[in-house]
Amino acid sequence: MMSEQFQRGTLGRMRLHVLPTKRFKTFALSLFAGVPLTEEKVTSVALAPFVLRRGTQSFPETISFRERLDDLYGAGFGFDLYKRGDHQIVQFRLDMINDRFVSSSDSLLGEALSFLGEVLTSPALEDGKFRSKYVEAEKTTISKRIEAIINDKIRYAAERCVEEMCKDEPFRLLALGRKDQLAELNADKLYQAYRQWLQEASFDLYVSGDTTLEEVQALVEKSFRLPTGEPSRYAPPSLRPARSEVQTIVERMDVGQGKLNMGLRVGETYGSDKYASLLVYNGLLGGFPHSKLFMNVREKASLAYYASSRLDGHKGILTLQSGIETANYEKAVKIMREQLDAMKAGQFEADDLRRTQAMIGGQLRELQDSAFERIAFDFSNVMSGAERTGDSFIAEIQAVTPEMVTAVAQGVELDTIYFLRDRKEES
């Protein structure tokens, strides 16, 4: 499928991953910074990139920061914040046109890496700390984003199910942090936390485009001022068995439609040689329109407005989500549990297995057409210790047999049932 391979190197605390390719007219840059999820630091780690995007030492005003991106031929800059396994990841992204397509005398890749390095390591300061006006404004931004989750009842139910399932694990925490911790974070405290974050984070810098590892190394050396040391590794996630007795959590809010979610432990993670079988299992159970949850809960029984499953391979958990009328709760739970039992018994059609494999294979092929998706795929390898390529993973998916799906199904155990319902009392 793709002959290009990532070239690897290290520079101080940073791992470098360069994909030399002429397929795209742009350079795609991704910088991943990961730290273990902890209650004490989750909010400061979440807030830092919001403040870093406001200005740097050379471009301290937000307007000059944005004008700098315009100068780089309209380069796109942004960041994401998420949980991966037991880690909190900040991902900075920058994409910009290749020098070959514009009349620029300077190396645009060099300019882009210089900009990214300054965003990360030379933020706009006042009196040796972050600018207070930026910190206060971005605290409001995060607060509103957390409130938006509460207002999006599908997302809220999904987060609450995981929070209850993992109530004594760091994974219960939102990647955005905790709203109640924002008030205590002022410009000075956040700056100190940011300095500590630079000392502790695992850094992986990806560059895709018409370049070489040697060129990127030379440019990065001039652009990033990270603390000295060796690159740190990602610890594997803690895999826990399901509770011996399934816990049921019912929460009441002003909702028109009930949200029934289930949390399951799957016993395997992305780095496992059984992961391909697990991905096919998820596809058969609830990943596609032909899956068991969709067909049996939504189509045949007409109990749900939506019904699907989602596999988190980096944490080793599976979640089922459905929207139902409150009166249909017992029936929906029964049918959803029956689908789990059917998978354990190997009760699925050979045609559905082939269709699932074809659809997953199609998704994996599509990923190869995006530089950022290829980067994300490779970073999953880095985090998990896997050594998959797009081609090898498609081959793994195609090689999954009915017996392999049934075998991984045996390890999937229900842990938590979470139901978000209205405030009306049962009659």
UniProtKB/TrEMBL annotation:
Protein name as it appears in the record: Insulinase family protein
Gene3D superfamilies noted in UniProt: Metalloenzyme, LuxS/M16 peptidase-like
SUPFAM superfamilies found in the cross-reference section: LuxS/MPP-like metallohydrolase (SSF63411)
Domain of life, per lineage: Bacteria
Pfam families xrefs: Peptidase_M16_C (PF05193)
Domain Peptidase M16 C-terminal: 185-358
MF-aspect GO terms: metal ion binding
Organism: Cohnella terricola
InterPro entries: Metalloenz_LuxS/M16, MPP/UQCRC_Complex, Peptidase_M16_C
